[in-house]
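Morning F.,

Quick status update on the modeling queue. The single chain you submitted on Monday has been processed. Sequence for confirmation:
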Amino acid sequence: MTKRKKSPEFNRTLVYGVIIIALVVVGYYGFKSISGSSAAGKIPGGNLSNDIGNNITPTKIDVTAALDASSPPEHIVLGGQVAFDEVAKYNFTAVGSGFTVRKLALIIPNAGWTSVSMLQIEYPDKTGQTVIKTVSPYAEKTKFSALTLYVPKNGSSVMTVKARFKKIGVDGGTFKAHTKFGLASGAIAGDFYATPENSSIISADTRVAKQDIYGDTHILYNSKPTVVSANPSGGGVIVPGSVVDLYKFKVTADPSGAIALKNFTIAVSVDDVSIPKTAYLSDFTFMRGSVDITTSAQITDVSGSTPLTLEDTNHVGATEQGILATPIQIAFGDTPADGGEQLIPAGQSVIYTLRAKCSPEFTTGDSINVVLELLNVDSDGYDYLADYDMDIGGVEQLITLQNAQGAAMGDAEAYLNFIWSDMSALSHLPNFDDAGHDVISSPDWATSYLIWDVMPPPYELKL
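Structure tokens below.
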């Protein structure tokens, strides 16, 4: 039987089909792994293309996050405010493709979330518009969904996290709550989801970091003081035999609420150039504005030497500025008979002045250096400020200061240079005992940690 020959048209169709198949095989090989790493592959094939049979390396595509350089440092946050407080910033970076973040989770650990009333994030979408999403935290981890956070290819976008905090006591906020805000890494399924621009050929990203990313810790109060120097510019003048202003400083209560003040520490240094050294300071007094409040305060030299007298020879240590000096403690008690703690109403300021009498022995070349001590120590991990000190008589809410002779009580006076309260406790009746050893107090006292932006500078008086 005669074998039938294939037509030219049939041969052409077969060749075209092979070429079409080959082009489909060669057309795309790039992919994104969960870890974000690149990979190499080998496409099998014949000799229809120089690419077939050769190794290729696809473009890496990935979206990652890190704490942004402009993320706010630790600071005091206030409860009961209408405005949101900026608490963290995160920088998202995309490689190889633009991405849209669709879902993410924020973490507020250690029960800090119970003092947060609202969480808010701000981010740019693909059009460049700022999008704001607000939710109420419902657990340690709070998820945001239906997001349109756009990260351009080989570029970055910043997401800002803000929070509104509960007022302590009234709304359920916790005094001195330490709150920090973290971005979940995506290690747990459902915590993160982002899609690339060409989602039809590239898989979604479900991991944004190797581990959860946290911003700095912030501390919750109902109010806070601001402390600045009120000394005259250019320094002061020593007047032998006369009373002089040693140091002036202004304390302002935040508009959110009144504050109380229990203790100041002012370091004083006398530099007597004479030999023997005979110049000294005595008759210390303390002023609130133009009113002498010395009778409602205890003014003591914590070196243990004779109270209210300071000579060149009895300095006990260096200040935070490195000046060899003696710390003079000014503490308030005897509520309510003698004025008690110092109160400053919301939004108001008070100027305090420490004065002393210069002895007649001061001569040309002598000087006095003075500085307000504000030791920067956090009280994280302590239920009460008093926990820094000894527990006397089983009273947990006891703040130990010193007796009238300057003898130290407890083991941590260095941390008590400046004691203040946000007045968040319902009962506020601090009281010295008869010997001036201690203060029975409500549990809403705090140290000077984070209350100033720039420390008040030293002040010098010369003759």
